[in-house]
Amino acid sequence: MEVTQLRRTPRLTVALVLASAVVLSGCTATNNGNEPGGTTVLKVAASAAVTTWNPVTSFSTEALYMGNVYETLIWRNPDGAAEEFTPGLAETWAASSDGLTWTFDIREGATFHDGEPVNAEAVKLSIEAAKAKGGASFIWAPLESIEATDEYTAVFHLSYAAPLDLIAASTYGSWIVSPKALAAADADENYFEEGKDAGSGPFTVDSYTPGSSVVLKRYDDYWNKDALPYYSIVDIAITPDAVTSQQMLTSGEVDLATNIPLANVKTVADSIGAEVRTSNSPFNFVALFNTTRPPLDDPMVRQALSYAVPYDDIIDVGAQGYGTQSRAAVPKGIFPYSDDVPVYTQDLDKARDLLAQAGHEGGGFDLVLTYASENSAEANFVPLIKDAFAQIGVDVEVRGELFNQQWENAKADPASAQDIFVLYYWPTYSDAGADNLWSLFHSSEAPFFNLSYWKNAQFDTMIDDAAVLSGSDRAAAQAKYIEAMNLLVDQAPAIFLYDTQAILVSPPDLNVGQFNENYPFTTFFAPITPAS
Length: 532
What we know:
Layout lengths: L40 E6 L16 H7 L4 E3 L8 E3 L2 E6 L5 E6 L13 H14 L9 E8 L2 E6 L5 H5 L10 H9 L15 E7 L3 E6 L14 E6 L3 H9 L5 E2 L7 H8 L2 E15 L9 H10 L2 H9 L3 E3 L22 H10 L7 E8 L3 H15 L3 E8 L1 H10 L7 E6 L7 H9 L15 H13 L4 H18 L2 E13 L3 E2 L17 E2 L2
Parallel strand pairs: 1-10, 1-11, 14-15, 14-16
Antiparallel strand pairs: 2-3, 4-5, 5-7, 6-7, 8-9, 9-10, 12-16, 12-17, 13-17, 18-19
C-alpha cells in the first residue's frame, strides 16, 4: 500500500550537538511589557545555524527561528497536556470517519507580515508547495488534493487514511506562507535568503547576519492578542560552541542560552540560583545489529547481547544522567510510545546462557561497531558496550567515522558492512510509528535507515495496518503498534539504548513554559516573560 512508500530525507548530522540539550536560562527585561511600541529586549545565545530562510525547503536547525515567525494550522501539545492539540491558524478541524477527508476552518482576521490575509487559498498554496518541493515533502505522501471550498475552509483529500492532524502540526513542512512570497520565491529561488519572511507568527525577522546573529521583532498586529510577546526584540547571537554559550550566560552578556554542556548544567543552575527541569525529547539512540550475517542473524544471539548492555551506565556517561531507557526506538511522549513495551536490563549470566544455547558458549566471536565520531555522547558511551561484551567473550572493534561516511558505508553492501551501527534518530513529526518504526525496521530492498537490514513480514503488516488506522482510529492504531513493538523487542534487531531528555535551567526571575518535545528544535520566545 502507499503508506509503505514514505521516505525521509537524511538530515545527517544536523543537531548532533544542538539536540543534546535544550537549556533556557536567565533573563533581564527593561520595561513597557507587551504594549505595542514598547521596547523590551531579550538577548539569546543559540547554536542554531540558518541553512535557508525559505519556509518551504527548510529542514534544519533554523527551525529554532521558524517556529517564532511562521505558524501551522494546529499545534501539538506536550505529552500529558489536557488537550492533544491547540488551534493555530485553524480554529476547528475534523476528519471523516474513514480518515480520508479532513476539513480545517481557518480563523478570520489573521494576517501575514506582508499584510495579506490568511485564508484557505493561502493554506492550499502553502501545503501544495510543501508537498511538491518541501525539505520534508515526504510527510505529505498521503495527500491527494486540497480545495478551498470557501474563503476560510480548506478540505484535504487523502489517498489513504493518515493522521493529518499530526502531519499538519509538524515543525517541518507545514508552515503556512503568504501567497505573494511563494510566488516571489518561484520567480527567484534566493528570494528569502537575506532574511525575508512571510509568516503570520508573533515575530518577524528584523535582521540577519549570516553565521553571526538573528534579530526578531514583535509583530504588533499578531492575531492572538492574548499571546502577544512581552519582548519587542529578541537579539540572538549564533553561538555554536556550548562552552562559549555558557560563558556568555554566566557573564551576563546574554539573558538566555539554548546550548550549555550537559556536564555543566547543575553548576550553571547553582551559580544563578536556578532550578533544573527535565522534559521528554524525541531524540533517541539505537544500536542496529547487522542481521544478515552470522552470528547476528540468530535472534537468540541478539537477545544475549541486548542483556549484556549496561543501560543505566550508558545513560549516566552518554547523557550525564539526563535520559530514559528507550522502548523499541519510540521516544517517550511521542505517539505510539507505551510503558507496556518491555525493556532489556543488564543480566550477564542470562546473556552467557543464551549464547551457550545458541551454540556460542563463552562467546568466541568478533564484531565491528561504528559510531558518528562527531557525536560526543556516542564517543563517550560506546566503550561501555565494548567492555560489557568482553565480559561475555565477545570482542568488539570500535570505529569512529564521520556520520556521512558511516551512513554511506552502511548503505553500500550489508555483506561487508559493520556489525553494529550506532544511530542518533528522531521523527520528523510526532508519529514515531510512521517514522521511527517504519524507517528503521520496515523491510526494504534498498536500506535507507533500516541499517539492521532486518526483514520480518509479520512486523511489516502490523505497522502498515497501524499506520492506516492512525488516521481514523488512534486507539486501535496504538494497540497494533504495541504488538509490533513487542515483536521488535523479542526479535532484537537492535539494542534500544536511551531517549535523551531536554534540560531547562529555569531562573527565579523568568517565566518559561514547558518544553514541547514535538518542536525540539524551536525555542518559543513569545511565552517567555519576567517572573516579577
